Amino acid sequence: MSEQIAGRPSIARSWLKELRLHQWAKNTLIFAPLALAGVQAQRFDVGAAMLGFLALGLASSVGYIVNDLCDLKADRLHPTKCRRPFASGALPVWAGIAAVPIGILAAAAVAGVAADGARQPKLFIIALCAYFVGTLVYSFALKRIPPFDLVALGGLFTIRVLAGMAFVPPPVSLWFLTFAMFMFIGRNWRVCSARWPIAAARLAGSIADTTPTTSLS
Known about the structure:
- Helices cover 69% and strands 0% of the residues.
- The chain is built from ten helices and no strands.
- The two termini are 33 Å apart.
C-alpha cells in the first residue's frame, strides 16, 4: 500500500511489465504455416499450435528476465532502462533469479504437451531451443555488433515460422523459410542500420551505451 501511495507500481504490474507480454504478439507467426496449409490443417493442429505459442511466449519472457538481470548495473545508469522493474527496485533481484528456472520448467512443460500434438514433434522442440538460445546470444552480444544484430533479428523471426511448421504435414518448406528470412531482415533494416554508426563508435569505446536496441521478441 505504501509503495503504491508513493507512486511505485504494484508487484503484479511490475511482473507484467518485466515479462513483456505485449511482445508475445510477434509469436503469432507460429500460425502462418497453418494459415497457408489450408484444408490440410486440422482442428487439433490449431490447438497444438496455440500451446506452442504459449511455450514461445514463456521462453521469450525468461530471456527478458535473464537479460535484465545481467544488465542490471548498466540499466541503473541508463536514462530510460533505469525504469525497468529490476533496475528501478520495483522487483527484487532474488525474485528474478527464482523466476528463471520456474519459467524454463513452465516453457518446457507446455512445449512437451504442444510437441505431443504436433505433426513433427522434434522440429518444434529444436525450434524452441534454437529460439531461446538465440534470444540469449542476441541480448548478450549480437545486438551490439552490426550487421549481426540485423541477421540475428531476422533469424529469430524466421525461427517462429519454423516452429509453426511443426504443426503442419511435412516436409519443411525451405523456400518459405528463405523468403521469411529476407523479409524479416528487410523489415528490421531501417531500425538497425540507423544505429550502426553509434554501435560502431560504442564498440570502439568512444561513447557510452545510451541508445535503445531493437526488441528481440
